[in-house]
Amino acid sequence: MEDPHFAQKVIWITGASSGIGEALSLAFAQKKCRLVLSSRREEELHRVAKACQAQGAAEVMVLPLDLAQPTTFADKAQSVKGYFGRIDVLVNNGGISQRSLAHETRLEVDRQLMEINFFGTIGLTKAVLPQMLSQKSGQLVVVSSVVGKIGVPLRTAYSASKHALHGYFDALRAELWREGIRVCWFVRDLCKPVFR
After folding, report:
1. Low-confidence residues of the chain, pLDDT below 50?
2. What is the tens place of the pLDDT at every residue in 165-186?
3. What's the pTM value of the predicted model, to 2 decimals?
4. 168 catalytic, yes or no?
5. pLDDT value of residue 191
6. 3-state secondary structure of 132
7. Are 143 and 93 a contacting pair, CB within 8 Å?
8. Helices and strands (H, E) in the chain, number of each type
C-alpha cells in the first residue's frame, strides 16, 4: 500500500542481503519507495531486489558495498546520486558480529569489528552527508542492539562497536538538527523502528 510519507523516497539500506536489512527492504518496498540495496553478496542482493519489486517498490538499485573498503564510499554515494538524483534515508544496518570471551579474542578481531561496524558506518555516513546537507533534508538511521547500551558476556568487541556508534550518532544528531537532517535509532529486540 502506498504511503504518501514514503512513496518515491530514496532509501539506501546496507546489509540488505539478509536478516534485518532484507526485512526492512521488503517493508519499504510495500510503501512504494525507491531502494538502494547494498551488501557484499551481490547474488543475494539481486534475490532481495526481485522480492522488493514483487512487493511494489517503485525502483530498486543493487549496489554491492563492502564496509571494510572506505575508499569506495564516495564513488558509491555518487552512483546513487547519479541514478536517483538524491538520497532521502540512509539505513546503516550492515556489520559483523562476535561471540567469544575477551581473553580468547585476538586483537585483530577487535580491530576488525571496530573497522566495519564503527568506521565503516561513519565513513559511509560522511560520504552521504554532503548530499543531505545540500538538500537541507535527510534521515540517518542506525540499526543497533541492546548491547550498544549494556555490555554482556561474549560480546565485548561487538558491544564496544555499538557503544561507539551510539556516542557518535547522538553527537551527530545535535550537530545536524538545524540542517533538516534527522538521526534515529532502530534498536533490535527492544522496539519498533520509527521513520518520520
Report:
1. 190-196
2. 999 999 999 999 999 999 998 8
3. 0.92
4. no
5. 44
6. helix
7. yes
8. 6, 6
Question: Could you say which of 6, 28, 84, 158 is catalytic?
Answer: 158
For 163, the grid coordinates are 557503544
Site of grid cell 511494489 = 56
Tell me the sheet residues that pair with 140: 90, 183
Cell numbers that stand for 137 in this block: 533534508
Superfamily of domain 10-188: NAD(P)-binding Rossmann-like Domain (3.40.50.720)
With beta carbons less than 8 A apart as the criterion, state whether 37 and 50 touch: no
Q: What is the pLDDT of residue 195?
A: 42
Q: Which residues contact 11 (CB under 8 A, 6 or more apart)?
A: 28, 33, 34, 35, 36, 88, 89, 91
Q: How far apart are CA 96 and CA 92, in angstroms?
A: 12
Edge-to-edge strand list for the sheet holding 181-188:
59-62, 34-38, 10-14, 89-92, 138-145, 181-188
